[in-house]
Amino acid sequence: MDTGHIRNFSIIAHIDHGKSTLADRLLEYTGALSAREMEDQVLDQMELERERGITIKAQAVRLSYTAKDGESYMLNLIDTPGHVDFTYEVSRSLAACEGALLVVDAAQGIEAQTLANVYLALEHDLEIVPVINKIDLPSAEPERVKHEIEEVIGLDTSDAVLSSAKTGIGIEEILEAIVKKVPPPKGNMDEPLSALIFDSHFDSYKGVIAYVRVMNGCIKPGMKIKMMATNKIFDVTEVGVFKPYLANIDQLGPGQVGFVAASIKNVKDTRVGDTITSADRPVKEPLPGYRKITPMVYCGLYPVDSSDYENLRDALEKLQLNDASLVFEPETSIALGFGFRCGFLGLLHMDVIQERLEREYNLTLITTAPSVIYRVFRTDGEVIEIENPSKLPTTQEIEYIEEPYVRATVMVPNDFVGAVMELSQDKRGEFKDMKYVDTNRVMLTYHLPLSEIIFDYFDKLKSSTRGYASLDYELSGYQTSALVKLDILLNGDPVDALSVIVHKDRATQRGRLLAEKLKGIIPKQMFEIPIQAAVGNKVIARETVRAMRKDVLAKCYGGDITRKRKLLEKQKEGKKRMKQVGSVEVPQEAFMAILKMD
Ligand SMILES: Nc1nc2c(ncn2[C@@H]2O[C@H](COP(=O)(O)OP(=O)(O)OP(=O)(O)O)[C@@H](O)[C@H]2O)c(=O)[nH]1
Predict the structure, then answer these.
(1) Dist. CA 20 → ligand 1 center (Å)
(2) What is the pLDDT of residues 283-293, one digit of tens each?
């Protein structure tokens, strides 16, 4: 098909504004799936994604649409992940398109994440088609939302499509708008091959399936291709398109979106954003925008049962086959034994990996509190990067420390501005800007330490604004901070896995809270357990877990057997996630206690 009949587009939306539902409707309308095949939300494929109702990885699908002009079009929908952890993936998916549907909930209006993604799309010169969704809701205010889009983004909304992905209103109009407004891709068949990788997944039979958008030239089986970031060469075995199941075709030409398989063993060789070219006739320059993604958040993962160590390694290796952004290396903790230090793109990514390890690989894990990467400038002139608080050198060896900062955007109704300001200040935030989005909503910009965001900023933001605030952030660089290591001692022994890095001025307060919190979490044992918080050699807080007095079952008066059984089961359940640390049994929650402090 000539490029004039191809349209490549994405959908940009805030979480829950209806992206997946709309994608399903588009598939259904164009007959990409028969009603029987139609399974709800095909684009969110991973089981976890479905359960959590959020899109984690990008996916693609090809739709055939006969427009009102009588012509037949090939529409490639590239889905984008809807979470701040995956901004880079979003930017690569957008780079593969010429246009985007901007889906905004008619009852909610623009949110922080929508805005961030629209700016990304504008950076890539995409044609943006505004879609006001959920107009079936009684609380829908399409006119207000249109106004908001014009005010905040500066987009013309006079021909915005009003839709209900739920009831099917506006679906044909959306397809027509894609054909009419999104420009066809440009590209030249005779030029050397350049194709952008925007996603990939591992298939145990075919090897890695790279999701690509061909810019110039063509790619077909039998060809030798080169990955420009790694210079590795592979023989193409199959190419095809997403219908949404994979369907082989003879070749992928300019402007087309599809997949390439080339007996590639590891997704590390098909990095998102990399350029595929022909090994025999390579392009001189790769496509712009490639970046090797680096983890932002680290945590320790330890098997509760130390004999599971090798299983954990296996599981991490398997997950890594499919996820080039997951990194891990062996680590030993005095408290927890053998485990791995793992790096993630963000907290959601961390949660998802943890959950998959437990669910799909049947592992019971202890996870330590997440940490960012600190830059430590030592007195001997060396600069080291620390992603594990217990590795921080002593104060005498440190000249100064830098920590990562982010530029955070919060959108919130007027009434909550005070609450957001108070919270942000408490989190060491530096106020940057405040703008009215409309008469009742405000956009606040803050400069905040990333470590505070991963602690509990988001949870607190949600609770202090009754769920109304939305947040987006991007890394803005490193900045010097007065940081110290807060150690926790149980029964007189420091527990390395409980150490955290905190701001000097908050060390005492955090130490006290943490000791108090741990007192509530660590179960009574046969002996008394002192809990101490210390900075350097100085103990700043102390609590005690009293010794257990009687058998727990003594509490069950009479012979209520079901109650007894329940209690025993509860204990067993609790046991699963306990780790013997020295003489003390410590439950999983203890390692996360720092994240949940009020
Ligand atoms: N009333 C109404 N509800 C809708 C409409 N579109 C979607 N929903 C509902 O809104 C919720 C979120 O929809 P999704 O399609 O999962 O949202 P999403 O934007 O894909 O969310 P992410 O996958 O997290 O990005 C679901 O409960 C949908 O049933 C609509 O037009 N009207």
Answers:
(1) 7
(2) 999 998 888 77
